[in-house]
Amino acid sequence: MNERKFGIQGPVIGGNNIGTGGRARTGDVHIGHIKDVSAVLRLLDELREDLTEAQAATSTIETVDDLRAEARKPKPSKDVAEHLMDRLADRGLGERMKDLSKAFDALY
Predict the structure, then answer these.
(1) pTM (whole model) above 0.85
(2) Percentage of residues in the chain having pLDDT higher than 90
(3) Of 6, 50, 54, 77, which is least packed with CB atoms within 10 Å of its CB?
(4) 12-26: per-residue pLDDT in tens?
(5) For bias kind Gly residues, which ranges apply (predicted)?
(6) How many Å separate Cα 96 from the centre of its chain?
């Protein structure tokens, strides 16, 4: 079962299919990759919290914040995300970066 896409039945605001990409009939609102974005944001929040507790360098925390901003964009750039994750990988975050990379792959 593909959990990446799901829909919500109900009234559509103003009679338009706003935010549906033209795929919905009246009454259907599709919320594309909201689960994927939520997973990425949760991982980034956990990572940022751990880095803050460990008193990591400010540049490392800022890189996590930049990744968070990229994940929240409607169409995140794969090149930008990979560049930022490469910067974090150099900081010895190994296994956490693998999980984050897999989560980001679902956004593209």
Answers:
(1) no
(2) 22
(3) 54
(4) 444 444 554 555 444
(5) 12-21
(6) 15
Question: 7 forms bridges with which residues in the sheet?
Answer: 30
Rounded to 5°, the CA angle 18-22-25 comes to 85
The tens digit of pLDDT for each residue in 30-62 reads 344 567 788 888 989 999 998 999 898 999 999
Three-state DSSP at 8 gives strand
| Residues 19, 44 within the same domain | no
- Residue 30 phi/psi, 5-degree rounding, is -100, 135
65 and 77 within one domain? yes
Same domain for 57 and 21, yes or no, is: no
φ and ψ of 54, to 5 deg: -80, 0
Return the structure tokens found at 20: 């549906």
User: In Å, what is the CA distance from 101 to each residue of 10, 62, 64?
Assistant: 34, 18, 13
Q: What is the DSSP letter of 3?
A: -
pLDDT at position 38 is 85
Provide the domain limits for residue 93. Answer: 34-105
Q: Into how many domains does the chain fold?
A: 2
